[in-house]
Records
---
Amino acid sequence: MTNLIKKLKYTKANIEELKNEFRNRGDQDADDFIESRAEPILLVPEASDEERTKNRNINWKFHDTCFHCGRGAKGAVMFHMVNGGGFMASKKDSLLFSLFGLGDMYLYCIGSTCAKKFTKEVLKPRGLDPKDYFWGEAYVADYEDDPDYLHIGDTAGYEGDYE
Ligand SMILES: [Zn+2]
């Protein structure tokens, strides 16, 4: 495994620099600031109430529900929900949301079938790697076990800086 593959986008070493940039961002709001430094933030349409109700009979045996289609799911695949809901962020950018994202909603469940569909229809056509967007056994990225990798909510002891 080369260093190139293991290279992290953000580590503890970037925090001061990012916080300074955030303070000097001019008239950019926090969402624009994050977006300008993040991998693509992708829309994940949410299941309607009707879809959830329709699927209730098969949902009870699962402990989780797919955000996208409302069907029961095992919770084997999760995604980082941001912007107050309905959007998915890359694992590489967890620190940006921990430091500056008031609408960080942490991990939500997506069914493995919907994850595959999303990979085929949204990620692959844009040249994006599903291992950067989904969490779970089938989607482990090389950098996740790097001790310097900051997971969702981990700011290495620094406070968030929303304003
Ligand atoms: Zn689904």
---
Amino acid sequence: MSLFRDFFIALSNNTYLNETAKKVGPRMGANKVVAGNTIPQLIEKIQYLNEYRIAVTVDCLGEFVETKEESLHAKQQILEIIEAIQYFNVEAHMSVKISQLGSEFDLDLAYENMREILLKADECGKMHINIDTEKYHSLQQIQHVLDKLKGEFKNVGTVVQAYLYEAEDLIDKYPDLRLRLVKGAYKEDETIAYQTKEDIDSNYIKIIEKRLLNARNYTSIATHDDQIISHVKQFMKKNHIEKDQMEFQMLYGFRSDLAQSIANEGYHFTVYVPFGDDWFAYFMRRLAERPQNLSLAFKEFSNPKALKRIALYGSVATGLASTLAIATKLLKR
Ligand SMILES: Cc1cc2nc3c(=O)[nH]c(=O)nc-3n(C[C@H](O)[C@H](O)[C@H](O)COP(=O)(O)OP(=O)(O)OC[C@H]3O[C@@H](n4cnc5c(N)ncnc54)[C@H](O)[C@@H]3O)c2cc1C
């Protein structure tokens, strides 16, 4: 299973495949987990989810930003989405990656871009802006930017990845910030992160409980794991923790029935909706997490019409088809 995971994480980091995939548009089933690439399409999806009492956090997809121009373009797109959310009066906020805003080559630039986003969000009804966490090397950068911004803005928060040994310290460091708690999506070394599902789950539960008991701000528990979700519900009941103090979150396209039933029980619920052309790395990380997610891809490859469309991009189609073949072999090991 670890080989399977490593394989897809490696694909997610491949800049050539990411660039090529942008030209093709969401394929291999990615269109089931990415909500289009125009603002009207996005707003329509948000309105649909809102009708079912489900709020949205929008991720304007974008990775491997290497120039100032690219970072300014990413910021501009995010500002436009914030304006659209306010204009259409939908229940949504934004999730932003600092690497999109230039942190990999100029941290000051990323800070300035993030500040501009927060100013706009403040203007637009104090909309919440979440800084997503990425690979471990960027954690210091995120904290640097966050620590500078959190005095000036109340509407900024971040994510804690339970696979990190230092997750608990981060919970202790930010009791006043709105936080999202996740297991963690990247491949990290054993010197900094737990490696087995048992260890990660156990640390996840530990930080969730600590956070719910001590937080002075809202908490988002972001997982598709029904055992963790049941545990959280029981823990809240036992400790008289109000439903208004927290929400559950899931990714768009996964476990919609479960999401709906949790929302129907009166819990706040938010779906993380990725949007835009830069779908490949995001989709590869979802495949890395769960072999069964490959079924999304197989559906498209068994559909002759879709295959014909993909075939227009010969080399990409060959690359993607062999990717699936290798993945299948890895699964059988
Ligand atoms: C809203 C949201 C935001 C996120 N933000 C970040 C971030 O900023 N940084 C980051 O590193 N990671 C982020 N992640 C990803 C996260 O770290 C995990 O990689 C991802 O959520 C997979 O872990 P899991 O908790 O869902 O449980 P897993 O360990 O993947 O799954 C546990 C169990 O849940 C069940 N299950 C899971 N998925 C399904 C399904 N589709 N259908 C049926 N059963 C299922 C299965 O029984 C499975 O064994 C985010 C995740 C979510 C949901």
---
Amino acid sequence: MERRAGRPPSRPLYLEILMTQPVDARCPHCRTPMSRWANPQLSSWSGEYQYVCFNDECPYFVRGWAWMNERFDVTASYRFRLDPATGETGPLPVWSKEAMRENILPEEAASAR
Ligand SMILES: [Zn+2]
């Protein structure tokens, strides 16, 4: 067990990053870390969760209200969504700032200890 004496930790930096940040879970529109969000049971998404930007100041979300209103005459917007299983991104439609928040997963399991 003495063979490692004096040697620096050899784990490459890229592995360190991959292990602590499985995907780039920051919103590309506002640079805010995104929340893990449980997939609805009756959805076609395959994984257990996706990353969703729940920042109410996010430009993507903010301009979504006007976009939806102009084109569809509805009071709704969408939040930025990233599926970590496929890397696919897209809009998650919401009808209020509070909508969909009940599906946000607690982060204790990942960050505590
Ligand atoms: Zn955002």
---
Amino acid sequence: MFVTKEGEDAGRWCPDGRGLGTHIPRGSARAEEPQASTIAETSSLDPATTLICHKHADYIVALDKEKDTFEYVATEHLRMSGVYWGISAMDLLGRLDDMNKDEILSFVTECQHPCGGFGGNIKHDPHLLYTLSAVQILAIYDRLDLVDPNLIATYVAGLQQEDGSFAGDEWGEIDTRFTYCALSCLSILHKMELVDVKKATEFVAACGNFDGGFGATPGDESHAGQIFTAVGALAIGGGLSHVDKDLLGWWLCERQVPAGGLNGRPEKLPDVCYSWWVLSSLSMIDRLSWISGEKLQEFILSCQDPENGGISDRPDDMADVFHTFFGIAGLSLLGYPNLKAVDPIYALPVDTVARLGLSRI
Ligand SMILES: [Zn+2]
């Protein structure tokens, strides 16, 4: 569910527009005129106050048909996560049936390696990030029967290190993101017994900081994205007692800027994807009411593309499927009407989590 982009810390959390490394102002790349019927539909809804659901659904359905665009090629390495963001958003919108299920399931199974792990695309190396996305996609479609859970779980368990942490792949990078991916994956597959869960949660606890937040490895600064993975991993592994809920709650609610949006660290600009990283963390520690949901909703809605659909990181930037999903998921956590409920720990629709037998209550 995350982005794999080397380099600057924040770049691992956000594909910057369309995975292109820069924020792109809206209108600079998509020149096509909206069709007459589209204009008529848009005018009946005010995007400043309403989620234009049909536009977002049409935007996501169209994404896979634009295979000759630069954006499509530039995001090729993370296609598996792109599919997860797309179908999760469509499911929350109640439009999952509009996606080509057979094509998606066949893509997912083609990305699996004999070792059990999945790549971000066909013939790409396996990685925990894409293995989780693949398992999430199969879970949403209730088609985990297409894969051997033992094979996947053995691959995931093989990446646990002596200190309880997880490497993302055979190259050995360590990060609390990978602990989250591993535990989420194993929990969905009901194979938690294959790893040392206590050691895994103790490693996450060791990544905690004096401000209540968590970093990627012990000693790294707190970042909202890492906090989601740390708290999520602790929630799945039964280690939430390692979290100082009030201290962390204060750090998280200070991420809300006067414009209503949330940032990932102090002094940074607000960004729609942090609606998810921050809100889900607040939800997991029962502090969701510590920010203004109303102002955050206004910010997310202001990032919609009223003509072509999709949600961007900030108002007037180019929309992408990553921010579209996390914007909709954030609104779902805020209780926006007519959206399916999303689970803050698994980033999956609540009905999927319930079907898997993983509900918290
Ligand atoms: Zn972002």
